[in-house]
Structures are given as structure tokens and as C-alpha cells.
Amino acid sequence: MPEMMSGNVDMELLCFTTAGSVDDGKSTLIGRLLYDSKAILEDQLEALRRASRHRGEEQINLALLTDGLRAEREQGITIDVAYRYFATRRRKFIIADTPGHIQYTRNMVTGASNAKAALILVDARNGVLEQTVRHCCIAALLQIPHVIVCVNKMDLVAYREDLFERIRCDFTRFADRLEIRDLSFFPISALHGDNVVERSQHMPWYRGPTLLYALEHLPIRNDHDFIDARFPVQYVVRPGSGEFCDYRGYAGRVAGGVFRPGDEVTALPSGRGSRVRSIDFMGGHLELAFPPQSITLTIEDDIDIGRGDMIVKRDDLPRVGHEITATVCWLNEKPMRSGVRYWVRHTTREARCVVQEVHHKININTLEKNDRDKEIGLNEIAAITLKTTQPLFFDSYRKNRVTGSLILIDEATNETVGAGMIE
User: Fold this and answer.
1) Is the confidence at residue 136, as pLDDT, over 90?
2) pLDDT in tens, 361-401
3) Of 79, 134, 229, 412, whose CB neighbour count within 10 A is largest?
4) Domain presence at residue 208
5) 204 with 347, same domain?
6) Residue 158 per-residue DSSP state
7) pLDDT tens digit string along 211-239?
8) 35-44 pLDDT, tens per residue?
């Protein structure tokens, strides 16, 4: 959609996350993607060769490219979220390699929060495991639009089609109970590169695309909300001297919808109306702006607007309120309890809040609700209601992942203790 609206658009960016059980080969798959797409620099390759030789391995261990922590390399597991960047001629990519252990659920939620696709690895020898189900549930809970299941280590099961089909059926059986918009399956061998960047000669029965081709062609343009216009103000631009002494602009990133000069808009929380005078970008003007562009808006009337306010279309207002019901993943070792005060950060707006009520805890393996246990600990997920000191301007997370998400911050330590999705 953006390319149809404007000819001056950068190459598309796809952020995707990876998840899998221990030894499913996530780090090797990412290393293979980077290696076969020529995204590894020569000095990185040499460092990989040295590290592999030091470990007594004859071939380059591609997993070492993403296992950045010493503890990860020693244990052969992923603990932290490792971000990697690469690009092809068609698209730019950010990879969030997230841990699979249940005690690192918060890391996976953090890595997947901005992802438009989730790669879930399954070991062809083991099939669908409890961790696989949990990863799929988290992807569904975060409403990641595209879920890609990579059945890895096909080389260790003689590239058998029947095993791949069995895993596909097992995975689809429980995934049908979740609201996943786009689900696809790929038989691969990350170690040998089968169906990752190049097509495999060992699986003539598979007639689908390679994994990289699928990532390059995922339909991500409609994953943004182009209907409801939302512009959280991040900064007020006031040069105050020279030819721009009368200039007053509002800088930020478009969170939803399309803005054009002449549009009738409303500023929240004041509720005062005006019209868009211009959309300024990189020293020039745009005829329209859409997510996720960073722009500066100017309006025709002199309205008191500051950081944390939101500019919206006059006939398309978000929900405004002091009470917010959200699904929250708890990120802190100190449990969350009702009545405790926190800071809430929503788009560019901050306010104090209290946890007014804990409705139920969510079993991350089944998405079943438990309304008896109201103490929420580290890595646990619950539905809660927040009461804020200032009104927030929000949409449901299902409609808009930007205006529908928030974080909770501890007042004393300034640590981020929770990440929430507004219902």
C-alpha cells in the first residue's frame, strides 16, 4: 500500500523473530541465512573459522554468529535476544533470535514485540514439543501476523516427506484453535542449507519456495493500520530565529492512517480542532504521510500541543480513558500485585497508574485462564485493569499494535517491569 501512495519510499523492512526448543537449530538457521545471502563480512568469517577450530570443529559453526554471550556458547543454548541485520535486493531484515526456555519468556516477548513474522523451528526427529506449543501461543498472543514453521534437520531423517507431513498436521491441529492469520511450513536443513536460500536437491517432493524467498515476499504492507489516523507527538519544533521564527511543527512517527494537507484534525486531550497545513519531511513537503513514517506536521491554528498529545482525524477518534484493560507479560522478579503504583508509558505519553484489578492469569502453554491465582510473577501473563492519573488515547492491540501497546515502569528503580497489549 505505501508504494502505491508514494514513489519516494525506502526499501521495505521486515522484523522477524525466531523461536524453538533447545537444539532445534535456531542460531544455525540464522547463520545460514546470513552466510548464504552473503551478509557476513570477511573479518566475521575469519573470526568464525578461528572460533570453530578452537572448538575442534572442521566446518564453520554458523551458530556462533548469533550466540553472542559466553554462557550461550558454553551451554550451546540461546539466553538473551540477539539482533542481526541483513539485506537483499528486495528487502531489509532485522532478526530477533529469542530464547526458547520457559524461564526466558520475557526475552521472547521483548524480541517479538515489534515482529511482523515469527519463525518457529521444529526438530524433524522430535516433532511438536511443549515448547513448540508455547512459542506458537506467544506468537498468537502477540498477534504476529505471519507464523512460519521450519521443520529443521530433515537431513537426519533421510528427508522423508511423511515425517514432514505428520509434523505439519500435528502443528496445524493445535494452531487451528489460535487466531493466526498466515501459517506456512518449510522442510529445511539449516546445517546443509536445504531450502534456506537455495532449493534442496534432496527433497524433490517439496515444490514450495525457499525460506528466504518467502521472507522477501511476505505481504507486510497491510500489517499497519492505514484506516485510523493516529499521530503521537514526540517533539515540538520551534526554531525561534531567522526565516523560521514563526514556525511551529509537531514531530513524531505516524502510528496509523493517512494524513494529507487540508485534513480536519483534532488534538487530544484538548479536543480542539484545526486543519493540517503541511507535512514536512527531510527539508521538503509530502502530499501524504502513513505508518511508519517519521514526519513533522504543521497545522493552521495555534493550539497548545506538546509531547504526549495525539493528533487524529476529527471524525475518527481513538478511545480515551483512565481505565485500561490489558494483557500484560510480567518482566520483573518482584511480583505484580493489585494496588501497587507504576508509571505507564503509552506511545509518547507517560502517566502514573495503579493496578486496579487482576482478572486472571493465562497459561502460556494452553492460553487457558486461571482466575484464582492473582499474584503475577516473572515470565507470567495476566489480564489486568489499570487506573491512570491522566487519560490515554488508545486503540485495541488487534487494531493497532502501536496505539494498542504499553509498558509499565517501576517508580523506584525506573526498570521496565511489564509489557501490555490493550484489549
Assistant:
1) no
2) 988 777 888 888 888 898 888 999 999 999 999 999 989 99
3) 229
4) yes
5) no
6) T
7) 999 999 998 877 788 999 999 999 999 87
8) 887 777 666 7
Q: How far is 78 from 135, CA to CA, in rounded Å?
A: 14
Domain boundary among 202, 222, 242: 222
Q: Which residue has the higher pLDDT, 365 or 180?
A: 180
Q: How many CA atoms lie within 13 A of 110 on its CB side?
A: 20
Number of domains present in the structure of the chain? 3
Query: How far is residue 207's CA from residue 327's CA, in Å, rounded to a whole number?
Result: 40
User: Which structural domain, as residue segments, surrounds residue 269?
Assistant: 230-313
pLDDT score of 240: 64
Closest C-alpha to 175, from 210, 208, 206, 148 = 148
* Cα→Cα distances 132→101, 119, 136, 369, Å: 10, 11, 6, 20
φ/ψ (deg, to 5) at 19: -155, 155
Measured CA to CA, the distance from residue 42 to residue 88 in angstroms comes to: 18
Is the sign of the CA dihedral 127, 68, 112, 208 positive or negative? negative
